[in-house]
Write a structure and sequence with these properties.
Blueprint (H helix, E strand, L loop, with lengths): L13 H7 L4 H7 L11 E2 L6 E9 L6 H9 L5 E15 L1 H10 L3 E8 L2 H7 L3 E3 L1 E2 L11 E2 L3 E3 L2 E3 L4 E5 L2 E5 L4 H23 L8 H7 L10
Helix pairs in contact: 2-6
InterPro entries: RraA/RraA-like, RraA/RraA-like_sf
GO molecular function: metal ion binding
Cofactor: Mg(2+); a divalent metal cation
Length: about 230
């Protein structure tokens, strides 16, 4: 097999995927140090769409989807196709036919730093797709690329097998080796935020940290308050 196609990578486990899939992308991005979130140019075709799973990484030349077809053939059920399409919006890299094949094969969803088409049909399929937008132009199928290698997608480095989670807010990537350690931290953050929201609903709207932060920033002098 050509060295541009890497099959020998470890995926984040299905058990961890199931645990982590219950969190919002914002929660995971926060506990990961506010890093790992892709550029906002890549967003859900429809806000209700969500996807979580191990990344099957694909790099293509702008406007050419040959290697995406190859990746679909190599994908395992539960994989998320994460495609570096160089943020090109001049032609679509995928449409109904390819998305139908993905769904039939059990691929969890598609994240593409590029355009797609047939968006209404994809919506009716209820298959999760995140892209930089749509374009009716079709792609070529002439140029090689890479599968299973590190890519840059939405400004974030993604290794094959990393955990990706996407929702209405966007997409976050967590390194495979880090995910297990972040789950309890994410769980605690959810609990802390729920407690704070309940306090706010009961009338305690003041942020306890605000005064100190304003003094640190020089907005307030020592002893002053809002």
């Amino acid at each position: 097999m050509n060295q541009d196609i890497n099959r020998a990578f470890e995926r984040v486990s299905p058990e961890l995927v199931q645990e982590a899939a219950g969190f919002q992308a914002a929660i995971l991005a926060d506990v990961a140090g506010r890093r790992g979130a892709m550029h906002g140019r890549i967003s859900a075709l429809r806000p209700r769409m969500t996807v979580a799973g191990p990344a099957l990484t694909v790099e293509v030349r702008p406007g050419d989807n040959l290697m995406i077809h190859a990746a679909i053939a190599l994908a395992r059920p539960g994989d998320v196709l994460v495609i570096d399409g160089k943020a090109d919006q001049t032609s679509a890299l995928m449409g109904t036919i390819m998305m139908t094949a993905c769904k039939q094969l059990g691929i969890a969803g598609v994240i593409v730093d590029g355009a797609v088409r047939d968006s209404l049909e994809i919506d009716e399929m209820d298959f999760p797709v995140f892209s930089v937008g749509t374009n009716p132009n079709g792609p070529t199928k002439n140029i090689g690329g890479r599968i299973g290698h590190p890519i840059s997608c939405g400004g974030v480095t993604v290794h094959a097998g990393d955990f990706v989670l996407a929702d209405a807010d966007g997409i976050v990537v967590i390194e495979r080796e880090q995910l297990a350690s972040l789950i309890p931290v994410a769980r605690k953050k959810v609990e802390d935020e729920a407690r704070r929201i309940e306090q706010i609903k009961q009338g305690n709207t003041s942020a306890s940290w605000l005064g100190a932060a304003l003094r640190m920033a020089g907005v307030l002098k020592e002893g002053e308050s809002l």
